[in-house]
Amino acid sequence: MTQAELQIQELVARSKTAQKQIEHYAQAQVDALVKACGRAIYDNAELLAQEAVEEGGLGNVPSKITKMRSGMAIAYQFLKGKKSVGAISVDKDLHIVNYAKPMGVVACITPSTNPTSTVGGNGMYALKCRDSVIFAPHPRTKRCTVHAVELVRQALKAVGAPEDLFLSIETPTMESTQALMQQADVVVATGGPGMVKSAYSSGRPSYGVGQGNVQVLVDADCGGEYDAIAETVTNSRIRDNGVPCSCEQFITCPEQDRAVFLDALRRAGAFIIEQEASAQALRELLFRKNDDGSYAFHVSSVGIPAVELARRIGLEVPPDTKTLVVPVKAVARRELLCKEKLCPVQAFATYQTFDEGMAQILANLHMEGAGHTAVIFSHNEAHLERAGRELPVSRIIVNAAGGTAGGATLANGLTPTLSLGCGSWGNNSISENLSYIHLMNVTKMAYTIPDAPKLTDEEMWAD
Questions:
Q1: Could you tell me the residue range of the domain that residue 42 belongs to?
Q2: d(Cα 79, Cα 35) in Å, to the nearest integer?
Q3: What pTM was estimated for this model as a whole?
Q4: Which stretch of DSSP H or E encloses residue 107?
Q5: Residues forming the active site
Q6: pLDDT attached to residue 192
Q7: CATH of the domain at 27
Q8: Is the same domain home to 190 and 222?
Q9: Cα 336 vs. chain centroid, distance in angstroms?
Q10: Would you say residue 456 lies in a domain?
């Protein structure tokens, strides 16, 4: 056994010991732990946001403060009053009682894009199920993640719970992270495709997330609300300097309203790049070509503000520019800018018919981002129903920002989460927002159904 494996073995042993101490906590005791965890991150949001940006160089402080404060508060509201101890539900028709049990030690792989909010969000869900957690920080943001874990440890101690319910790898390496995934009871992997693949290969039950490439379809029947729509997609796109996976990447609107909508985007703070030379320079800045001929987003542009991106390609834009919008003539593999871009850049296209608009976003999703999220602005019920039937995504946001896909709002009913499952489209095990229900085992106690029907085989097959 390697030194890294031995260190992880020791961490897991400590974590299991702590988890066993709360395995028989009552619901009120469990909920006190959940609240203590959420408040520790909420109350220290400003400090943790500053540390995350200073250490990782990704995103911006105001967005990270908002993410931690709104995320923790809304997650607590979501969890408050929900049963996770003992008999949690009864199916009176089938005469089944469901009992919740802990899974044990949760390995939480923490991304550099959300190095502190993930500690609170996934941590609250684990504690709700009487699990313990060991965090594997991204090496780029290890100090702020370790600090967030320490703040929660202090909060747990203050309510009389074992501090070791929250542990972290203080010097993370690929080897130590893989060892953790192999020794924990369940893995939650929020990160790039490589890390998610490693989680699913660990031999442990795992939850991963898929790649985002959020598509926006503006229907002709949107009520002409172009200024409001432009404000929504622009302000959503600049959250944390465009790093979140739920940011809007591609917008398509009716051809006849092209000029009107582009003007609305300008008023919302977008700069429209209309010169092909500048558009090509932006492509070359944002993407690098791999040895196999494919293209990947260049790490040097992650979370870079629009004004700085423009400067890097020799383009002068107003100092208050929020996003760079590039009208494109092709979609999917024929246009690099239709890929996911981890900075405030959006591709823009138009369509003649709703069929054509759907075809555009379908092509982009099949190239990249299937399973994640799409946005549609429409008041046409037939078009909304069609989008629901045909789009290969786990979430469709109607007349609102793509950023609400994570449920960190009281304005929709999606589960608040930092881990957005993308189903089989995204090679994930769930096609919904990760919740506490995914971190518990459930025992079904089945009673005999009184007066159960007695049917012959022929009767079984009768219409």
A1: 3-209+434-446
A2: 9
A3: 0.93
A4: strand 105-109
A5: 245
A6: 72
A7: 3.40.605.10
A8: no
A9: 23
A10: no
pLDDT at 70 over 90: yes
Which of the residue ranges 133-137, 158-162, 266-270, 409-413 would you say has the lowest mean pLDDT?
Answer: 409-413
Q: ∠61-67-70 over CA atoms, to 5°?
A: 130
Q: Is the same domain home to 259 and 401?
A: yes
Residue 200: per-residue pLDDT: 77
Q: Is residue 261 part of a domain?
A: yes
Supply 362's token pair: 């379908």
Q: Which residues contact 27 (CB under 8 A, 6 or more apart)?
A: 83, 84, 85, 86
Residue 280: count of CB within 10 angstroms of its CB: 13
Percent of the chain with pLDDT over 90: 90
Are residues 218 and 377 in contact, defined by beta-carbon separation less than 8 angstroms? Answer: yes
Place of tokens 């959503």: 236
CA angle in degrees (0–180, nearest 5) for 241-242-247: 145
Give per-residue pLDDT as tens, 169-196.
Answer: 999 999 999 999 999 999 998 877 777 7
Reading the block at residue 416, the tokens are 């608040």
Nearest to 49 by CA among 70, 35, 32: 70
Position 203 scores a pLDDT of 85
